[in-house]
Specification:
The structure is a single chain. The chain is 64% helix and 8% strand. It is an alpha+beta fold. The protein has a domain of 286 residues: Outer membrane efflux proteins (OEP). Helix 3 crosses helix 4.
Length: 452
């Protein structure tokens, strides 16, 4: 009866195992999944609500970032890797698997009533102390790395979206100004051509204006190409087709009006969430856990081995105690290696913090310089040029100057507006660089997020 019970228990144990059904992904299905599609507005709105951000009447930058999180292949791959790390972290809490040995023996000419002997023995390693903690620490470190990889990918996509949006909006304004510049260029060229034909000026003046006109045409083509390239990159980041991409002014309504007086001045705590720093902290904690594990291995590892034996009519219950002895040097060599590894991890942590902190300070300095440059244009240079243009318009209407002189003043005014657009784009790019250095938004709709 006892043997039947044991056999039934073993069969039940084996039947409880999880089965496997092969389900490989078909290449055709993967290709179909990559067919360009449109943004899932409902999914983006649901994600926005989950994060605690208020609904936007028109799509904004946060919607684009959330859409990238839903559709971008790189982010989705790292999200899958994070799920794997979470599952591995849960599995790390399980005790080590026991081992079992089966025994069967037949004795010929046995004196007992039965010549058979059956039995089994278990080997149960005791999972306690630093041996268990070290395994869990390794899983926690792997989970931290997976989260940092996801954060890196998300910030890379987010920064790219912000830069490309800035390129599109700045280039569209540049295109409008360059097209507006065509009329005064033509008027000035006509006026100078007449003066050159009359012998009042040298022909080189006309050639110079023709070169300026050609330069404007080249800048116009470059701006148009920049818009097309940026749209292509945004569509790729969102995982959609470029034909279905719609960039409206509501995406970044205050692009041309950046904050000029805000002072960021990154504090040490501002970089505390940077993935590089978190990785370095995780590496140090893991090296410390490895050191404690090597210290624990100075002492024997213990396992117990209960068993059962039926020996020719007799039932025996043996119990063994196993000891995994340390090396002959009491693990001093491994401890020395672990100590050196922890010192190296500490030095790497200090270097990482210094690099991340210095980089954020450098990016903040560039941002402050860009703000001062735009402030100088808007507070001094552009108003002065606008006054000159208004005075030239009044003089032209009064007949005091000719059309060519008025066109020259208008050209200078539009040129200053182009310089202002360049300064705005540089400032926005500096903001993006600082946010990328901090891995934290300093402006924009992301600041509305309240959920972790």
């Amino acid at each position: 009866m006892a043997r039947l019970t044991i056999l039934l228990l073993l069969c039940g144990w084996l039947c409880a195992c999880i089965g496997y059904q092969p389900a490989p992904s078909a290449a055709t299905l993967i290709a179909q999944a990559q067919i360009p599609r449109a943004i899932d507005r409902a999914a983006v709105a649901a994600e926005r609500m989950r994060l605690g951000a208020r609904p936007a009447p028109q799509p904004d930058r946060l919607d684009l970032v959330l859409a990238a999180g839903l559709h971008n292949p790189a982010i989705r791959a790292r999200q899958s890797a994070l799920l794997v790390a979470l599952a591995a972290n849960t599995a790390a809490g399980q005790a080590p698997s026991p081992s079992m040995s089966l025994l069967a023996e037949y004795a010929q000419h046995a004196a007992e009533s039965s010549p058979w002997q059956f039995g089994f023995g278990l080997d149960l390693p005791l999972d306690y102390g630093q041996r268990r903690t070290s395994r869990q620490d390794a899983a926690n470190t792997a989970l931290l790395y997976a989260r940092c990889d996801l954060a890196d990918a998300s910030w890379t996509i987010r920064s790219g979206l912000r830069r490309d949006l800035g390129i599109i909006l700045a280039s569209e304004r540049r295109i409008a100004l360059l097209r507006e510049l065509g009329e005064p260029r033509a008027l000035r060229l006509a006026a100078l051509t007449r003066r050159a034909d009359a012998g009042e000026i040298a022909g080189t003046e006309v050639d110079r204006v023709r070169l300026e006109t050609a330069s404007d045409s080249r800048l116009l083509r470059e701006a148009q190409n920049s818009v097309a390239d940026a749209r292509q990159r945004i569509a790729a980041a969102l995982g959609i087709g470029v034909d279905s991409l719609q960039i409206e002014a509501s995406v970044w309504p205050d692009f041309l009006q950046p904050e000029l007086s805000r002072s960021t001045n990154p504090a040490p705590q501002d970089v505390s969430g940077h993935p590089d720093l978190l990785r370095a902290i995780g590496a140090y904690e893991q090296s410390d856990s490895d050191l404690r594990l090597q210290l624990a291995r100075q002492y024997p590892g213990v396992s117990i081995g209960p068993g059962y034996a039926w020996e020719r009519g007799l039932i025996k219950l043996p119990l063994n105690v196993g000891l995994a002895l340390p090396p002959l040097d009491l693990n001093r060599s491994a401890i020395g290696v672990a100590l050196s590894a922890r010192e190296a991890a500490a030095a790497s942590l200090e270097e990482t913090y210094a690099r991340v902190s210095s980089n954020s300070e450098q990016k903040d300095t560039v941002l402050q310089q860009a703000r001062r440059a735009l402030s100088a244009i808007r507070n001094h240079e552009l108003p002065a040029m606008q006054r000159i243009a208004r005075r030239a318009t009044a003089q032209f209407e009064a007949g005091e100057i000719d059309r060519g002189q008025w066109a020259s003043a208008r050209i200078e005014e539009l040129g200053m507006q182009l310089a202002e657009t360049d300064a705005v784009e540089q400032l926005r790019d500096a903001e993006t660089a600082l946010e990328e250095a901090l891995h934290r938004a300093i402006e924009g709709p992301e600041l509305e997020i309240t959920a972790p």
